[in-house]
UniProtKB/TrEMBL annotation:
Position of the signal peptide: none
Keyword Metal-binding attached: yes
SUPFAM superfamilies found in the cross-reference section: Clavaminate synthase-like
Source species: Lentinula detonsa
Organism domain of life: Eukaryota
PANTHER family in alphabetical order: PHYTANOYL-COA DIOXYGENASE DOMAIN CONTAINING 1, PHYTANOYL-COA DIOXYGENASE DOMAIN-CONTAINING PROTEIN 1
Pfam family, one: PhyH
Lineage: Eukaryota, Fungi, Dikarya, Basidiomycota, Agaricomycotina
Protein name per UniProt: Phytanoyl-CoA dioxygenase
GO-annotated molecular function: dioxygenase activity; metal ion binding
Length: 308
């Protein structure tokens, strides 16, 4: 497989826990994704929507059936500030959607083409050599609506897509310009090396979702201390790709501008037997839609050091 990343880029990713690759998508690919996203929002029937809102707050994370059964569907989640106390939208639906998820990469041809059918994505997975046999899951359009696009607090992706051992890798594509005003991503460089995964987002036995601690209190305290540092904001242009290690801490601020910040993202994890993705995870594969393999054959670069 032809190499796409330079050794300097690979080293930078492993050092910082993330890597910005300018212009990864062509202008045509970027436009197609953005237009398709807006078309999906325009066409979905708000009248039958359960008004499921999306939040990442630890004490109020979304957990209804509309969310929990969305892993093999294309569904729409609303901004908290777009729905009043009676469940009515306070603005047009095009300005109310927080995100679309979570099987765009499987069900929609436009998104599938740049995800599972993209040789450049396969080359990146091969070059990073984080996985032997990666599978793709949890694809989303994140809209970050003007003035109400909610803050996403400090977190790492392996908390939400937990494997044993942790193996999550995020692909985050900017479809519009991302700036300090409309909620560009910020990262704590190197935190994937110093801050352990301390909790995981799970389905609760009584229904809904919540967080389960996976380390003793002293490790949790150490993690909180090591998570201190200066975040680096990464402004992006349309078509840029940000690779995100599953353990690196990152966040985004509220969109205070008059512009949306559309982005497309999906994730990879290692497949069994090298990593276990268990039934506690909120997103579950189904018999009709198992997680799709990214590479056509195992990554020999990782299996055998001679290929590195």
């Amino acid at each position: 497989m032809p190499e796409l990343l330079t050794q300097d880029q690979i080293n930078q990713f492993h050092r910082n826990g993330y890597l910005l690759i300018p212009g990864f998508l062509s202008a045509e690919e970027t436009t197609n994704l953005l237009q398709r996203s807006k078309q999906l929002i325009s066409e979905f029937p708000i009248e039958s929507h359960p008004r499921t809102k999306f939040t990442t707050a630890d004490d109020n994370h979304v957990g209804d059936d509309y969310f929990l059964s969305s892993g093999d569907k294309i569904r729409f989640f609303l901004e908290e500030d777009a729905v009043d106390k009676d469940g009515n939208l306070n603005r047009e639906k095009e300005k109310a959607v927080n995100k679309i998820g979570h099987a765009l990469h499987e069900l929609d041809p436009v998104f599938r083409k740049v995800t599972l059918e993209n040789p450049k994505v396969q080359a990146v997975a091969h070059d990073l050599a984080m996985h032997v046999d990666p599978v793709a899951l949890q694809s989303m359009i994140i809209c970050k609506q003007p003035e109400i696009g909610g803050e996403v607090g400090e977190h790492n992706d392996s908390t939400f897509l937990y494997t044993d051992p942790p193996s999550a890798l995020g692909f985050w594509f900017a479809l519009e310009r991302c700036t300090p005003l409309n909620g560009a991503l910020s990262f704590l460089p190197g935190s994937h090396l110093t801050t352990p995964i301390t909790k995981r987002f799970v389905r609760l036995p009584e229904g809904g979702t919540g967080f389960e601690k996976i380390v003793p209190p002293e490790i949790e305290a150490q993690a909180a201390t090591s998570a201190q540092g200066k975040y680096i904001l990464e402004a992006c242009s349309p078509g840029d790709l940000v690779l995100i290690h599953g353990a690196v801490l990152h966040k985004s601020e509220r969109n205070t501008s008059s512009h949306t910040r559309f982005a497309y993202t999906f994730h990879m994890i290692e497949s069994p037997p090298r990593a276990l993705y268990d039934a506690k995870n909120w997103l579950q594969p189904t018999s009709s839609m198992p997680f799709s393999h990214v590479l056509s054959e195992p990554n020999l670069k990782l299996i055998n050091p001679a290929f590195a």
